[in-house]
């Protein structure tokens, strides 16, 4: 790997107005002293984020950084936090993430960083490690608190500086609850950090559009991504090794979207072309395009439930009824047979369905033993699509004594209609599951007669978690019927 320390300019950048000076170099110097030196791109953003006007107030109310994973974003947010704590002496900094585990990981990293430096640690009064109440408090009274965003939106996130990590998952209620609370702060800032947005990243997409247009004078915006250009062949579907001149194979594009590529940091970390090439082979094209190229998902082709409907049903795990009984259990297999999903579902006292991904993993061999175990626990038949990719498991499942309900085409169509209706009506609630959220974001509709099914071929993600969710929710609510389907008896319709 070459040690390429040259600045990779963001593909899109807009800077705040009324800049007089910046504390960015001071923050970078502090990071250098404690062994956490910023990359050139991080220094660029620090200069924008810490720019002040002649009154000493921040020029930017919003700072947004969008870049591929594992390049610079999380490190940059830590560098900003150090600057606020030890350079500009902000009294309350809130670091929030979509998932609690992400916020906890950020806390642990900051704790290790500060405790590993005598220059910083001697200024610490107390580190709070209680689960859900992680915080770092300085002798000056400054505090850095870590929180997970919940359905209550931005309540409890108000601070002088607010970090919204994993901003692709932001919802309107988060912003509606948060922003008004900042109006009484003397010099507030909101920091968005994210990789490219998914289909339902409506909040972040609007910020992106303002940043790319340069239309907001108090928004500092930097986005590293590859340009979305046409491939050499009009028929190119981005499958690796299939088409010459595919934009996903252009290594200049990789570098534009990944400033760390080809660079060795002082701590020995870096990103190699060999790794990205292997990732290109392993990931579905749509995932590689979003996660490594910075190409956003298009909401117009991926929104199967309606804008924001799926996100409105998201609930924290502790809100799930503790005594919920699983009355639905289903398995589904990806079209390429490379992965499978087992999903359970139960119905609460209010009639709302709660699906849960019980396991999702590579291959299919593991599904038989796991299905046997789960069926013994829940005492319900396992539903499987008799015309889907998982149908090849049916003989093995039956031989191993797993009680099955083999869903007909009519069952599958009923199940999906039931799922869409319940999501639309707010009668399906789900705890965060990345594999299920990804399936929803990448799913496409397929017309079957005058009804719809999940279109496996047109989808841009592994939709097996969503298919299993549909069947499990159907079993838990409508339930299998013994009457033969008109579609099956006539043999005129298959999925």
Write structural notes for this entry:
The chain has 495 residues and is an alpha/beta fold. Helix content is 34%, strand content 18%. The chain has 18 helices and 18 strands. It has helices at residues 24-33, 40-49, 73-86, 100-115, 118-121, 172-178, 202-213, 251-257, 273-282, 285-291, 299-302, 309-312, 366-378, 394-399, 409-425, 434-442, 464-477, 486-490; strands spanning 12-14, 21-22, 51-52, 62-66, 92-97, 124-128, 135-138, 143-148, 161-164, 189-194, 219-223, 326-333, 339-347, 353-362, 382-385, 404-407, 445-448, 451-454. Strands 1-11-4-10-9-5-8-7-6 form a 9-stranded mixed β-sheet, sandwiched between helices. α1 packs across α2, α2 crosses α3 (73-86) and α15 (409-425) packs across α17. It is globular and about 70 Å long. The model is unreliable at 482-495 (pLDDT under 50).
Short description:
With 495 residues, this protein is α/β, with parallel strands linked by helices. It has helices at 24-33, 40-49, 73-86, 100-115, 118-121, 172-178, 202-213, 251-257, 273-282, 285-291, 299-302, 309-312, 366-378, 394-399, 409-425, 434-442, 464-477, 486-490; strands at residues 12-14, 21-22, 51-52, 62-66, 92-97, 124-128, 135-138, 143-148, 161-164, 189-194, 219-223, 326-333, 339-347, 353-362, 382-385, 404-407, 445-448, 451-454. The chain starts with 11 loop residues before the first strand and ends in a 5-residue tail after the last helix.
